[in-house]
């Protein structure tokens, strides 16, 4: 997941949840015993936006809770235009309201050269990031011209071929802008840090 306040007090991790309001038998709730933020995290441009959480006990796998593999250094990344997916409880309309139900979106990987253009993200966009969104093909009959992640989705996985390749990081001030696709931390760039942290 992305950068987290290093104070673990009172924070919970809930797995197997699909609704924020409904009582679900599939839910597993954990306390966070420790937060490991990447020491190179840059709050100015969200470079190195990745953190690991140590839970207070092991996770029990079930039909609703399963581990996902993550991409390692040297493994191929999604090609330009590749279909990726993510999910979250973030805003669906650029307003403060959040969805009660877990939402999923399929998107396309955007050329990083575009995301480095000054009218996109410019120098804020680094080699540790990938960008992705879904453009409605013309003629577009949807009220949503562009789909991507939004406020409240940060920390969620970007999945390609059943493997987590990215972590939802940030984007434009408003979601769904053509020239401000969502930005995702490339997990494989941090596999050495992840392995070293897991060994602590």
Automatic annotation (TrEMBL):
Keywords: Disulfide bond, Hydrolase, Protease, Serine protease. The keyword Disulfide bond applies. Residues 1-199 form the Peptidase S1 domain. It comes from the Eukaryota. It is an enzyme of class 3 (hydrolase). Pfam families: Trypsin. One of its GO terms (molecular function) is serine-type endopeptidase activity. The keyword Transcription does not apply. GO terms for cellular component: extracellular space. It is found in: Secreted, Extracellular space. GO terms for biological process: proteolysis. It catalyses: Preferential cleavage: Arg-|-Xaa, Lys-|-Xaa. Its EC number is 3.4.21.4. This is trypsin. It comes from Muraenolepis orangiensis.
């Amino acid at each position: 997941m992305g950068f987290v306040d290093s104070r673990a007090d009172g924070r919970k991790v809930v797995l197997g949840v699909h609704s924020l309001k409904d009582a679900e038998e599939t839910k597993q709730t954990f306390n966070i015993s420790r937060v490991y933020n990447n020491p190179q995290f840059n709050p100015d441009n969200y470079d190195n936006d990745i953190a690991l959480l140590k839970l207070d006990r092991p996770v029990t796998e079930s039909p609703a809770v399963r581990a996902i593999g993550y991409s390692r250094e040297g493994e191929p990344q999604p090609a330009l235009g590749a279909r990726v997916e993510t999910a979250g409880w973030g805003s669906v309309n650029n307003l403060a309201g959040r969805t009660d139900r877990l939402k999923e979106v399929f998107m396309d990987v955007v050329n990083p050269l575009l995301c480095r253009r000054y009218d996109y993200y410019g120098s804020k966009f680094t080699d540790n990031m990938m960008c992705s969104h879904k453009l409605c093909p013309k003629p577009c009959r949807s009220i949503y011209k562009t789909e991507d992640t939004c406020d409240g989705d940060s920390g969620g996985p970007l999945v390609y071929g059943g493997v987590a390749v990215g972590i939802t990081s940030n984007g434009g001030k408003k979601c769904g802008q053509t020239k401000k696709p969502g930005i995702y931390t490339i997990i494989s760039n941090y596999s050495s840090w992840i392995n070293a942290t897991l060994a602590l």
